Amino acid sequence: MESHSEEHATKLLQAQTHVWNHIFKFINSFSLAVELSLPDIMHKYGQPMPLSKLIASLPIHPSKTCFIYRLMRILTHSGFFSQHNGIENEQEVIRYELTDASRLLLKDHPFSMTSLPQAILDPILVNPWFQFSTWFTNEDPTPFHTQHGMTLWDLAGREPKFNHLFNDGMAGDARLVSSVMIEKCKGVFNGLESLIDVGGGTGTMAKVIATSFPQLKCIVFDLPHVVADLQGTENIKYVGGDMFEAIPSADSIMLKWILHNWNDEECVKILNKCKEAITCDGKVIVIDMVTESKKEDDRLVETQLFFDMQMMVTLTGKERNEKEWGKLIFSAGFSNYKITPVLGLNSIIEVYP
Ligand SMILES: C[S@@+](CC[C@H](N)C(=O)[O-])C[C@H]1O[C@@H](n2cnc3c(N)ncnc32)[C@H](O)[C@@H]1O
Ligand SMILES: C/C=C\c1ccc(O)c(OC)c1
């Protein structure tokens, strides 16, 4: 009897920890404290950095020096730094090193993700969460709309600082994804003469592809406020416009992280415009998530579910499984598709007319 109730208490306490852990999940996000540039400071030091040196290099008030150890402790626990304890001159010295994760937060890393936490944790994207429960009771399209009274794209057009952070964050991801694509599946672009990156942001993806395929004519097509000040090159042109109105013609179109921003009806409209724009032997190259395909990777599954919620709160979009992708593609009148799951969270979906 006693051991039974002991077991009961253990289970209850585990459940309590589970709930507390969940309540506090946002603390992991805010603890990144990207404004402190911890990874850059440690990278500049060039070797495992003692806590005292780290504190001395930070632009903080002297009254805050004692808090850095605690910040480093949680960031080490969550995999952003590794810690080595040693004794030097009879004194305990803690040294920290970067990990693969914190290297992606270096400002000068080619695949830098630094702007993303800044954009995603900006009040512009966090405040809509306070409308989440209200939104379930009204007919607004998104909690973002309840909060701001307009779409994310309209607001980005009016907030240059946020627009810059957002596009910069997207650029880091585009650089990583395009490099992996060029390395692992160059074949996707073989034989293409022209490519339009629809919703191509500031042209990062196009630049990497154009370097590997100099004969390929690339057009970066995005909203006017995104491409306004950008200068094209020999084989990259910037065109401002609305993909729901008209897309320039080419033999192929890329849609990276576009369709997951939109609901099924909107996606069919976009895909229809793509179909009108490409030649009959061309294709649409979709780069987006395919959910439920890597069930064994719990972290990847959870991250895709986070993206799905982010799409629900900021836009009308969602993440889709293979069946949902198929339905979308056939509804838009395409005849076939091929999924290549080689991009971590994302997959390449080649769509044929
Ligand atoms: C999530 S971002 C993806 C950017 C880029 N493809 C990438 O993956 O790095 C979506 C892009 O769609 C663009 N966009 C939104 N509405 C659009 C429209 N109606 N026509 C063209 N582009 C649009 C946005 O400006 C933004 O650059
Ligand atoms: C800003 C948060 C992240 C994010 C990632 C991929 C997207 O397609 C997106 O569209 C708004 C946002």
TrEMBL record:
<dbReference type="Pfam" id="PF00891">
    <property type="entry name" value="Methyltransf_2"/>
</dbReference>
<feature type="domain" description="O-methyltransferase dimerisation">
    <location>
        <begin position="22"/>
        <end position="108"/>
    </location>
</feature>
<feature type="active site" description="Proton acceptor">
    <location>
        <position position="260"/>
    </location>
</feature>
<dbReference type="InterPro" id="IPR016461">
    <property type="entry name" value="COMT-like"/>
</dbReference>
<feature type="domain" description="O-methyltransferase C-terminal">
    <location>
        <begin position="129"/>
        <end position="335"/>
    </location>
</feature>
<dbReference type="GO" id="GO:0046983">
    <property type="term" value="F:protein dimerization activity"/>
</dbReference>
<keyword id="KW-0489">Methyltransferase</keyword>
<dbReference type="GO" id="GO:0033800">
    <property type="term" value="F:isoflavone 7-O-methyltransferase activity"/>
</dbReference>
<keyword id="KW-0808">Transferase</keyword>
<dbReference type="Pfam" id="PF08100">
    <property type="entry name" value="Dimerisation"/>
</dbReference>
<dbReference type="InterPro" id="IPR001077">
    <property type="entry name" value="COMT_C"/>
</dbReference>
<dbReference type="GO" id="GO:0032259">
    <property type="term" value="P:methylation"/>
</dbReference>
<dbReference type="InterPro" id="IPR012967">
    <property type="entry name" value="COMT_dimerisation"/>
</dbReference>
<dbReference type="InterPro" id="IPR036388">
    <property type="entry name" value="WH-like_DNA-bd_sf"/>
</dbReference>
<dbReference type="InterPro" id="IPR029063">
    <property type="entry name" value="SAM-dependent_MTases_sf"/>
</dbReference>
<dbReference type="GO" id="GO:0009717">
    <property type="term" value="P:isoflavonoid biosynthetic process"/>
</dbReference>
<protein>
    <recommendedName>
        <fullName>isoflavone 7-O-methyltransferase</fullName>
        <ecNumber>2.1.1.150</ecNumber>
    </recommendedName>
</protein>
<keyword id="KW-0949">S-adenosyl-L-methionine</keyword>
<dbReference type="InterPro" id="IPR036390">
    <property type="entry name" value="WH_DNA-bd_sf"/>
</dbReference>
